[in-house]
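Field reference: sequence -> structure
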Amino acid sequence: MMDRINGPARIDTADYTPVSRSTRSFISISQGLMKSNFPKNYCTKTPVFLSFNDAKLGSRCDNKVQSRQPMEPRITQIPPMDPKSVPSVKSVVKNRIEKMSELIHKELSEAIIGAAMTVLNVLRPGLDEKLYENALIIELRKQGHKVEQQRQFPVYYDGQLIGMLIPDLIVDELVIADPKVVTAFNDSHMAQMLGYLNITQLQLALLLNFKNARLEWKRVAR
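Structure field:
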């Protein structure tokens, strides 16, 4: 309202409606939120409404109204992997050989596995299990190892003979070698080798799988 004689109209306090309790509570809560969430470089002296339409809160500092700005998200960059930290093939093989040094009959195990690889490379996958067994005998004997095929071991129960146990191969009277052509080794194969070791009183058995182009083997120790 304009006063045509005296210029701009004076503010009449009677024209203002008193602030309700809910409005005062809203302003009090807003002050607390602004003090706790604003960065140090923001002024939080007196919260004011910048717009009555969208009810945005700001603050009045040095006669300037500053709106609350959202903080930028922190971005964490992952550094690229150092190629030197990736182990080389030589180091992996070396560590594996060092671990095998603690194994039972390490050198003999390596010789049997190497002979089996040679057989598989020559014959290729897809043959019967017995063919791989016979070829492995030839290869091991060619390398100077003693190989016993289908040696029989008596099995007793309560002092009476109940049958014979016949492992496929025994190399140098130390290691049982059992050629297989299976999809994968399972618990029954492991249990069979443990039974062989228990009856023969040997310490180590080798499961050799000729199913795929890459030889698979499993050590079973007693």
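Note: DSSP finds five helices and twelve strands in the chain.
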